[in-house]
Amino acid sequence: MGDGKPDVLQGTLDLMVLKTLESMGSLHGYAIARRIEQVSDHTVIMNQGTIYPALLRLQQRKWIKAAWGISETGRRAKFYSLSKLGRQKIETETENWERVATTMARFLAPSS
Amino acid sequence: MDWIRILLSRCAALIHSRELDADLDEELLVHIELATEENRRRGMPEEEARTAALRSFGGVTQTRESYRMKRGLPFLEALARDGRYALRQLRKSPGFTVTAILTLAVGIGGMTAVFSVVEAVLLRPLPFKNSSQLVSLHEWIREDPHEFNVTAPDILIFQRESKAFSGEGGYISAGYDVTGAGAPFHAAAERMSASVFPVLGIDPLLGRTFTLEEDTNAAPVTVISYALWREGFQSDPGAVGKTIDLDRRPYTVIGVMPQSFEFPLDAGRLSHRDLWVPLSLTPVEKNSEGENYDYGLVARIRPGVSTAQAQFDIDRVITGIQPAYTMVANLHLKGYFRTLKEETVRKARPLLNVLLGAVSLILLIACVNIANLLLVRAAGRKREFGVRLALGAARRIVLRQLLTESLLLSAIGGVLGIALATVLVRAAAVALPDSLPRLDEIAIGWSLFAAALAFVAATGVLCGIVPAWAGMRTNVLDSLRDGGQAAGTGSARHKLQSILVTLEIALAMLLLVASGLLLRSFAKMLETDPGFQPQHVLTAALSLPRHDYPTQQRVDAFYTELQGKMELLPGVKSVGFSSNIPIVGQKGGRLITPEGHVRSASEGFLIASTYLVQGNYFQALKIPLIRGRVFEDRDEQAGAPLVAIISQSFAAKYFPGKDPIGAQMKIGTKFDSPMPAITVVGVVGDVKQAALDQPTVVQMYEPVSQAAAALGPMAAMLGVAGNMDVLIRTAGDPTLLAATLVKIVHQLDPLLVISNVNTMDEIVAATESSRRFNTAILSAFAGIALVLALLGVYGVLAYGVTQQTREIAIRMALGASRGVVLLRTLRYALIVATAGVAGGLIVSIGLTRFLSSLLYGVKPLDWVTIAGTVIVLFGCCALAGFWPARRAASIDPMQALRTE
Prior knowledge:
The complex is a heterodimer. By secondary structure, chain A is of the alpha+beta class.
């Protein structure tokens, strides 16, 4: 059951969300999507909607938690923040990602 | 661990799905608004800001859909959707739905109930610790086909010598008059080695069980059953240590067994032991030489010891026993064992297997019937499937939909079936014949529900698969053309229906033949002459305690006095006493050798059922005297010559062509022995020692006063025969005499317990109950099967007539008479009946032999029964076909063609 082996892209988005929440604290979905666009300097081309299934996935794993709050514009919005478990997981997920990245880099490096 | 968290959250989401949908909608709405606002702040006009926000979001509906797929359990949700749709479909045709559900409820309910009984009696391990290691030992003699238990000395030899077993113990049933625990009563007891309780591995609820010393020293201690503790001591925890009287001797209660404990596990409801006392073999028992093989021997096989090793060990021990026997020299004693479970359930197996087989057939017929009805419905819904397939539904979706419908039917039928099964199981606990063991273990429990669930699933798939397959193969083009009346698929479907109906008839025929055989057996049993006249006979059991009646003379004097007082009463014709009464079952027998009889090599020993009688026994039961005389007063005089009366079949078998009166016999396996000779003085008619449908055994009667003398040097084995059945022939209603009997017995001995007061009619009826039950239940099953099969024939024909209205109308318009139309429809019923009967004949010939152990006086291939069944089936099929045929014949061609 579940996504035992997330593909790299999905994992990427999850890690981006986690990192965003780690640095920014509690955020609503739109802010997370915007923040990812900004940090990636708009190199990540994604539909903002895809953030929501990712948020659900992370919630189901209890890595993040959600609560309704009031946005900066005074609207009711759902805010996401890291859970204790999520904080622990960031470390291992980061390591995993770095390992993949280094491996990929090795493949992509011009053979001399 | 992640997957557990995900699964839990998905399950939780199922429950709040509506709330969560609203949440998500709001969240997405906020997202779009925030984005629109930001765009506007950047200076975009209102309209453009919103469009841009939606564009960068990228598909609200897709997001919602993929979110939902991740959130709940899509599989379950699809199932619920299919289920709702199926429910709507079923509600549309209530007639079909109710028929199908009731059929399935009967099938599943019956199956579940019978399975629960089979599980409790046959499959469940015995209620002892590691019960698969427990075995029961038996002995037999190479020269004789009978199977024995063991003798008293052999218990001690096995305990001493055997190596394959970690423990073994002997037991033999006994009866005691109990006072001091509620009202005085005659208790069913078991004398049991101290080792039996530890071998079985069951601890007492209170107190303790016997010690080895108590067993060896014949200590007056007893362990009582839970039921006796509850009723005799009102569940008093202080019952242990109290004293009760067994046959007027004080015994100390040392333990109470738990409620579930029962040993030995005999058949029937009244077989429970009230108490257990140490086996404490008497010196006479220890020194006996194989006259009494009625002792049970239970043992626990050591872990790791194979069956072959255990058998080898038994052979070794038995070989050591042989030379010790002088009386029955030159016999080859053999030993073997079977598991205690097999010992307990093997006699129950044939009946339960037949019941399980019969009820499986019913369920199968029910499934076939519903498959047929579903096929008919599927034909009517061909257009619906065609449209769905044409609109791009995958074929497996149609299959899933149809299977969901049949599973839903079987689930609803299953719920009703469980209700039915709980009623049936409760009824079974009361109605099942006493020939079955472990009846107390039959209960409504998880195993029943688990079984019902399995049957529901199997049934749903079984009755759904054929119609679903047919539905899946719907030809899109054909089904959409002209109202879905394509000829090709229609006839294929019709062929499939005919095959299913034929199958139903064949299966119903098998059940009808089985019930016919049992009905014929039952009739044969009722015709059987018991050999005595049970009407107007009252019987009761008395057991004179050994300590107050230490000699046979004292016992005989008591019974003579009782006879004298009773026979003075008006309305009493004759009074007799016997150690056994007919019809209740054979209790052992005696090895007899008639003078001059030469045993052929293949012939077994002559083991005669022996009744020790006193008073006017033959007159009381009206057993006809054929030659010679019955016992007289002179036979009871001290020193009178030893006499015996034999049964007609005894005379015919062992004195063929000779006058048996005056012939001599001896107890034992050879005439050349120190045993005293016994003279035959009379021949009486055969009686049924056990139930009417059991074989008659050669029978011998001795005056009880001579019983000890006839045993010669082994007289001590018999001891004093104080337990007698009283038989009183009356002029009127025998039950009116019961109170007087009790009063007169108490005049003679106020402490005596009088048990089993019954009329002989009641006793005979009780022995018929087991066959009555088998016959009734199998006939009921056959009836249900027949109704279901006829429903199938009727359904297919009725549907066929509706489908062919136009064709029939054209035929009639072209000049076919109503008679021709009627016959044409009836012909179909007779064709499927013929095919079904042919199939049924083949399976019946193949399968009825499994019934042979339940038959009496009828062979498994009884052509009368088979012919009768064939006639019944043809008649019923013609009847089931007649209504649709008449409807076909009454079609008005003009009207039918106009409406088309």
